Amino acid sequence: GSVYSSDYHKVASYVNCSKELVEQFKKNMLMTYNLNPSSFEEIDSKTNKYYRIKYSSKLVYGDLLKDFKSYSTSNSLCIVPGWLLTMPFSVILLRSFWENEGSIAKSGKLSADLKSLTVISQLSKVHNELGLNHYISKYWKGGWAYKLVLNQKKENYQKFIELGLFEKSVATKGYFKGIKKNTILINYCENRKWLLSLMP
Predict the structure, then answer these.
(1) How far apart, in Å, do the first and last CA atoms of the chain sit?
(2) 125, 158 Cβ separation under 8 angstroms
(3) Would you state the pLDDT for residue 73?
(4) How many whole angstroms separate alpha carbon 63 and alpha carbon 66?
(5) What is the pLDDT of residue 200?
(6) Mean pLDDT computed over 83-105
(7) What SS3 class is residue 24?
């Protein structure tokens, strides 16, 4: 998502390849602000179909910037406020992080990327508190970026599924393009008999 000022408009928008996630965002905005979107677009690019929803509202713009000075993780002002790092908000935060930035490889590796070392370090602490073992690697992508990678252990995958961190997101590229990430993850675990302890 993004929050920005354009000409005379104050805008909050969200873009995703998962229509379910965009519809959920729409429901959340209606519930929280009693607002319907200014626009809702279905866009076919050369590589993917995606959905973009926008709200032109000074009220929403001002409210969203009360806690975050910036929503761009490439901006040094982007810091997650303390209240979002505590339960139950921290689980919602991780769901947003993994559903929007996370990926699952054919090898089963779960990883998610951000440009902000500050924010990914904050998220790392939340992962530790929830018992999700991981490590962070640094790489260059026109600027430094950071990848949070979960250790490929049964307990990690089971905790990830229990928390619903891939509930509605869809793979946008690679071998599993177009398939829900949660389906890919569960199939990976079932192939290794890792879901037996979760079944009744």
Answers:
(1) 38
(2) no
(3) 84
(4) 5
(5) 44
(6) 94
(7) helix
User: Taking Cα atoms as reference points, which of 152, 83, 74, 163 lies closest to residue 113?
Assistant: 74
* pLDDT digits 0-9 by tens, 162-187: 999 998 999 998 889 899 999 999 99
Please list, in sequence order, all residues whose beta carbon lies within 8 angstroms of the beta carbon of residue 182, skipping any fewer than 6 positions away.
161, 166, 167, 168, 169
Residues in the chain, overall count: 200
- For 24-59, write each residue's pLDDT tens digit: 999 999 999 999 999 999 998 888 899 999 999 999
Give the chain's mean pLDDT.
91
- What beta strand segments (E) does 39-109 contain? 39-44, 49-56, 102-104
Q: Using CA atoms, how far apart are residues 61 and 57, in angstroms rounded to an integer?
A: 6
Q: How far apart are CA 153 and CA 129, in angstroms?
A: 17
Residue 41 φ/ψ, nearest 5 degrees = -120, 140
Strands 110-114 and 134-140: unpaired
* E-state strands within 90-157: 102-104, 110-114, 134-140, 144-150
Which tokens in the block code for residue 139? 């790489």
DSSP H helical ranges for 2-53:
19-33
In angstroms, the CA 199 to CA 147 distance is 31
Which among 75, 37, 54, 48 has a CA at the least distance from the CA of 3? 54
| Cα distance between residue 46 and residue 126, in whole Å | 37
